Automatic annotation (TrEMBL):
Protein name: Membrane protein
Membrane topology of the entry: Multi-pass membrane protein
Keyword Hydrolase carried by entry: no
GO cellular component: plasma membrane
Region forming the signal peptide: none
Transmembrane annotation, as ranges: 7-27, 39-66, 78-97, 117-142
Major localisation: membrane
Threonine/Serine exporter ThrE domain span: 6-133
Entry-linked PANTHER family: SUCCINATE TRANSPORTER SUBUNIT YJJB-RELATED (PTHR34390:SF1), UPF0442 PROTEIN YJJB-RELATED (PTHR34390)
Keywords: Cell inner membrane, Cell membrane, Membrane, Transmembrane, Transmembrane helix
Protein family according to the UniProt entry: Belongs to the ThrE exporter (TC 2.A.79) family.
GO BP field: succinate transport
Subcellular location: Cell membrane
Length: 152
C-alpha cells in the first residue's frame, strides 16, 4: 500500500477508535490529524531504515507534544487526543504472532516476537515520557522569556 493510502487509513483508524471510545466530536478531527501526522513520521523513519522501535518512539513523542498543544488549543484534556492517536502504534500483529507461535510450539519465534512487543511498548512509553519532558521544557522557556520581556 502506498504512503498516501497508509496516511488516509491512519486518519480513518483514529476517527473510528475515537468514535468507539466516545471522545467529544469537537476533538475527533484534531485527533485524526495528530494520528496522521505521527504515522507520517513513523513512515519517514521506516523509509530511512530506522526500524519499528525507533519509529514508535518518534511517533509517540509526536503524539505527546501535539496532544499537549491540541489540549491547550481546544481546552480539553490531552488524553482525549493521546489515546485515539496511539491506536496505529499498538504492536497488535507482533502480539498475535507471539501468541500464535507459543500455541504452535515455535518457542524461538515466540520469544523473538515477545521481545519485539516489549521493545515497541517500551519505546511508546519512553516517547510519552520524553514528550512530557519536552512540553515542560517548552513551558519553562516561554515563562522565562515572558519574565525577561516584562523586566525590560
Amino acid at each position: 500500500m502506498g504512503t498516501i493510502g497508509q496516511l488516509v487509513l491512519a486518519y480513518i483508524a483514529v476517527l473510528g477508535f475515537g468514535l468507539i471510545i466516545n471522545i467529544p466530536h469537537q476533538a475527533l478531527n484534531v485527533a485524526g490529524w495528530i494520528g496522521t501526522l505521527t504515522w507520517g513520521g513513523y513512515l519517514i523513519v521506516q523509509a530511512f531504515d530506522g526500524g519499528v522501535v525507533l519509529g514508535s518512539l518518534i511517533g509517540s513523542v509526536g503524539i505527546g507534544v501535539l496532544s499537549s498543544l491540541a489540549a491547550r488549543y481546544k481546552k480539553m484534556p490531552a488524553i482525549i487526543f493521546n489515546i485515539p492517536s496511539l491506536v496505529s502504534f499498538v504492536p497488535g500483529s507482533q502480539a498475535y504472532q507471539m501468541v500464535r507461535n507459543f500455541a504452535l510450539g515455535n518457542y524461538r519465534e515466540a520469544v523473538s516476537f515477545t521481545l519485539q512487543v516489549i521493545m515497541i511498548t517500551g519505546a511508546i512509553a519512553l516517547g510519552f515520557l520524553l514528550a512530557e519532558l519536552l512540553n515542560r521544557l517548552i513551558a519553562f522557556c516561554i515563562r522565562q522569556w515572558r519574565l525577561r520581556r516584562l523586566e525590560s
